Write a sequence for this structure.
């Protein structure tokens, strides 16, 4: 797990992830300049650092590069959560505390994710027809 992104790295990666295509330093610069004053060389250095850290790959285009994300923002968030969870001396308590912080919408997203991971063929999945009463228990949640 690479270390968490810094504030400027995150701002740059947010754009790379959002656009989901190879980007130039100039494109990222122009978008960032709508929020803050920043130099071309600063953005170029951040993208070079992100490349060195393995967050982006780059391909030469003339005298410049086009940068593309190596993985998704979802994968990055998952890695951060996994790293934080694995650092706990009591992972179960950490999960209980984390779930307690979640909004209803986040808990629903978690429930949906668990159903996807378990798949319909899993006997413990409430959506599995071989799990009598599973759909009723699910509806009660």
């Amino acid at each position: 797990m690479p270390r968490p992104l810094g504030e400027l790295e995150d701002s740059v990666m947010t754009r790379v992830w959002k656009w989901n295509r190879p980007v130039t330093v100039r494109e990222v610069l122009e978008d960032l300049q709508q929020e803050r004053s920043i130099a071309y060389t600063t953005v170029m250095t951040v993208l070079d650092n992100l490349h060195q850290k393995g967050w982006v790959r780059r391909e030469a285009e003339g005298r410049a590069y086009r940068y593309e994300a190596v993985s998704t923002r979802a994968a990055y968030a998952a890695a951060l959560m996994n790293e934080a969870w694995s650092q706990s001396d009591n992972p179960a308590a950490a999960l209980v505390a984390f779930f307690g912080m979640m909004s209803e919408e986040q808990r629903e997203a978690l429930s949906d994710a668990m159903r996807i991971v378990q798949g319909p063929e899993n006997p413990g999945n409430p959506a599995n027809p071989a799990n009598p009463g599973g759909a009723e228990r699910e509806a009660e949640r």
Residues 57 and 118 are 33 Å apart (CA to CA). The chain has a mean pLDDT of 86.
